[in-house]
Automatic annotation (TrEMBL):
Keyword Thylakoid set for record: no
Sequence intervals crossing the membrane: 28-47, 54-73, 79-96, 108-126, 132-152
Keywords from the named record: Membrane, Transmembrane, Transmembrane helix
Protein name (Swiss-Prot/TrEMBL): DUF1097 domain-containing protein
InterPro entries: DUF1097
Superkingdom of origin: Bacteria
Length: 174
């Protein structure tokens, strides 16, 4: 199977599996999982993609949490929130000069996923810590999305290699 067909099959099957996981096992928004998966791919995939995207997504979640908690303390009005975002989002860009934190888009994916989860769940960032806290849901989604991206890459590679091995053996028999 060529690489494109292998990737198509792997991503299709694992995309469906990830949906079922989010419905029945770990209730996180599928869109947040897909954002993490895309972040992994955009960061280069493989171990490099994991190292670059997941830590920065976590940093983004932490930044969103701190930003929104400070905004909450300040009354959560639009101007207070906007001012807090200046610092929260600005910090994500500023730390990008360090290699470990250079995948700035991944941090914004984590930040945005946290804010989006707050919007769709109606929960507050100031809620008590729990597995249903918006930051915890975002973290679970980022980890799951990265895992699904990594496994999809491995599966696509295995399907592509298996075809080359079978094709090579068949070619030797003729």
């Amino acid at each position: 199977m060529n690489e494109r067909a292998a990737a198509t099959l792997a991503i299709g099957v694992l995309g469906a599996a990830s949906f079922l996981v989010t419905v029945y096992l770990v209730t996180v928004p599928i869109w947040a999982l897909f954002i993490a998966w895309a972040s992994f791919v955009a960061a280069g995939g493989g171990v490099t993609g994991v190292r670059r995207s997941l830590p920065m997504a976590i940093v983004g979640i932490l930044s969103a949490t701190a930003t929104l908690l400070v905004a909450h303390v300040l009354g959560a009005g639009p101007w207070a929130t906007a001012l807090c975002i200046v610092f929260g989002a600005g910090a994500l860009v500023a730390i990008g000069r360090f290699e470990l934190f250079s995948s700035t888009p991944a941090s914004f994916f984590g930040f945005a996923s946290t804010v989006g989860i707050i919007a769709v769940t109606g929960r507050s960032i100031a809620d008590a810590p729990s597995v249903s806290h918006p930051a915890a849901i975002a973290l679970m989604a980022m980890v799951l999305g990265t895992v699904f991206g990594y496994v999809a890459e491995l599966l696509a590679g295995a399907l592509s290699r298996a075809d080359r091995i079978v094709g090579g053996v068949a070619g030797q028999c003729t």
